[in-house]
Amino acid sequence: AVAAKRIAKGLADEAWRAKSEAIMLGLLRDRFLRDGEARSVLLSTSGKRLLHDNDYGDRHWGVDRRSGKGSNRLGLLLERVRGEARESRDVEAWLGDYTCDDVMPPDRVRWQLSASRPDGRSVEDASQTVDKKPLLRVGRLDMCDVVSPHPSVSRQHAILFAAETRGPLLVDLATTHGTTLNGERIKPYAPVAIKEGDVVGFGTSTRQYSIALVTGADRLRREELYDAVTQPSAAGGGGEGLTVFVGGLPREAAAEEVREGLKEFFKDCGGVEDVSVPKDRQSGELRGIAFVTFRTDVGVPRALALDRDLFMGVELKIKRAEARKPPGPG
């Protein structure tokens, strides 16, 4: 009986510790996401071991200063939060804690954003469809998934999050001019659900966004691919209709490495006829783009289905080439 009690006590302790560490991790994520100054200090410790030493005998969260013994769980959790922030995964991790909801698998995600002016006229260049990205960043920076150039929009302004249970969520990142839902300003760092017919605004920009999250996008992409393959375009024979534009390529890689890597990346799409990797005429460096031409019509739709997939550690942007590939050096 005594041994059984010891075992039960040990299990209870382990369960309590796991629960307390999950709560602590959530609190740390919340603190360093909301406090930009504290986040900067944490990131400045990059590469260093974080140690919570103490003189009151806490060997679980820290290390006892006298004996030098302890698990240092708080220091390890801080290092984890630091790694998430360095890799720009902190918002997604925080959202998972805050909403108690899982992120939707990328293959099932398709965002459809329609922008319009107050008079109802559509803003075509601001309307877009984004596949395979459960988390969209909205802001003025070019790195954002949804770019709004208005001066009242912060560099990183808001987040759109595809939650498994609650659906599309909107989060304002404590911006100066705020984010509105149906004309009402939402609270910072407080995810709100977006429903059909809702209107979203960023800053004082007059652009109004209707945002829809299409679930089951993996099935839709398969149907679109089937339609494209069974109804090929009329542009057969090694021309513009058989070429895709590839953006987002690493500029520091060697041209031949990128060329051979793209051939391997697209090998299951059909026969690759040519891969052009343009360079800057003045610097001779890669421009971060490529043009891939296929031998048959089926290659292009299959390649388009790989949009946003990873290649050499970066996310590719793949679309139909609008013009013939440039004659520059490749």
Element-by-element helix/strand order = HHEEHHEEEEEEEEEEEHEHEEHEEE
Work out the number of β strands: 19
Shape: globular
- The overall average pLDDT, rounded, is 85
Low-confidence stretches: 232-238
Q: How large a portion of the residues is in β-strands, by DSSP E?
A: 15-25%
Number of helices: 7
Strand arrangement across the biggest beta sheet = 6-5-7-8-11
The biggest beta sheet is recorded as: 5 strands, mixed
Terminus-to-terminus distance:
77 Å
Provide a descriptive summary of the structure in words.
The chain is of the alpha+beta class and 330 residues long. Helix content is 29%, strand content 23%. It has seven helices and 19 strands. The strands form six sheets. Strands 6-5-7-8-11 form a five-stranded mixed beta sheet, with helices on one face. β9 and β10 (184-185) form a beta hairpin. Mean pLDDT is 85; it is low at 232-238.
Keywords:
7 helices; 4-stranded antiparallel sheet; 5-stranded mixed sheet; alpha+beta
Give a quick rundown of the structure.
By secondary structure, this protein is α+β, with helices and mostly antiparallel strands. It is built from seven helices and 19 strands.
